[in-house]
Structures are given as C-alpha cells and as structure tokens.
Amino acid sequence: MTGRCPRCGNPEVQSSRARGAVETFARLLGFPPRRCTACGWRGLRPRVIFDARKASKPGIPQVELPPAPPPPPSPAELEKRRRHRHRHHIKTQKRQALQAVVIALVLGVGAGIIVYSCAQ
Ligand SMILES: [Zn+2]
After folding, report:
1. ∠107-113-119 over CA atoms, to 5°?
2. Cα(11) to centroid of ligand 1, in Å?
3. pLDDT of 51-98, one tens digit each?
4. How far is the CA of 30 from the centre of ligand 1 (A)?
5. pTM listed for this prediction
6. Which of 23, 53, 79, 103 could share a disulfide with 3, CB 3.0–4.6 Å?
C-alpha cells in the first residue's frame, strides 16, 4: 500500500474529518479517513504508512515536478536543422521564381491579347 491516491495516483492525499461512527472508530484504530485533493477520492488508509512515507522524505514537497525542459540540441542536430532550413529556403526560392515566370507569362499573354485586339 502506498501513500498515493488509489484512483488517480496523486500524492496529495490529506487527512479528512471522520464522518459518522464507523470512520471515527476507524480513526481511533489508526485508519483515519483520507481524501485526495485532486480527484476527491475518499477512503480509510492506515496512519502508519502515510506518516512514515512523509517522514522519510523531509523537506521534499509531495508534488510532481514539472517535466524537465528538453536538452539543448547537439551540433549534429543543429547542422541537420540548418540544412533543412537551407533546403526549405531553396524550395521557396524556386517556387517564387516559378511564380514570377507564371506572372510574367500571364502579363505577356494579356499584353499580347490587348495589342492584338487593338491592332484589329
Ligand atoms: Zn485522486
């Protein structure tokens, strides 16, 4: 048995006020009611295990640490990214050149049509 919430695994399981005779009796036997601060789970858990767990980790808050930030990229990874960016840059340049050609063609054809129709 652990000190974590059996439903969601949250370590923040607090002592709860005993409700009714059964829980009061259980508390007197060393099974106080506990309540999970995250999901609201409530149940009887032995005092010994919970308090021993807390005492074994002095000063360490019973809260999950946020995930560590990703490590800085290696030089190989940076080179890969740089090459990728470079390829992307070339692709963009090619696309822009193609667009320029298409625009020039459309304008040229348009101008040709206008000139042709005016010449009639
Ligand atoms: Zn929970």
Report:
1. 135
2. 8
3. 556 555 555 455 556 677 777 888 898 999 888 888 888 888 888 898
4. 21
5. 0.38
6. 53
